[in-house]
Design brief:
By secondary structure, the protein is mostly helical. It contains four helices and two strands. It catalyses: Fe(2+)(in) = Fe(2+)(out).
Length: 145
């Protein structure tokens, strides 16, 4: 949904209601306010680390059962009773024969590793992005680097 503003005779400026200015800019729209999907430029390193850790833990936790099934399906020496025809069928068979919680076995170890790993990744990424933006003076080359 777009909102057009401007007086008669002046050039109309298009702005999206959801905060996306579609200008390809690096976080700020034509009015100078920041996009809704970016953290403020004044956000601390700990904020970026917390956001990264939460995103990584959530993503890996949601995908963990799928990865468990995929690993079983790719195994070179599967269980003789395991005749998997599809991912959903494999998940059903694993849960039926080995228990409901079997696809989640080991998720706690993954959470302990994913949190710190993604926290460090996001902190380094945001630090380098800020540094390169200062070096290249907002010319767009920092995103390529």
């Amino acid at each position: 949904m777009e909102l057009r503003s401007g007086s008669v005779g002046s050039q109309a400026v298009a702005r999206r209601m959801d905060g996306d200015s579609r200008d390809g800019g690096g976080g700020k729209d034509a009015t100078g306010s920041e996009d809704y999907e970016n953290l403020p430029t004044s956000a601390s390193v700990s904020t970026h680390m917390t956001a990264g850790a939460m995103a990584g833990i959530l993503e890996h936790s949601v995908m963990y059962p799928v990865d468990s099934v995929k690993t079983r399906m790719q195994s070179l020496s599967p269980d003789p009773k395991a005749r998997y025809t599809s991912i959903y069928g494999a998940l059903q068979k694993i849960m039926r024969t080995e228990g409901f919680w079997r696809p989640l076995r080991g998720v706690n170890v993954m959470v302990m590793g994913a949190g710190p790993a993604h926290a460090m990744y996001f902190a380094c990424y945001e630090n380098m992005k800020r540094t390169l933006n200062d070096v290249f003076h907002h010319q767009g080359n920092s995103h390529l680097a």
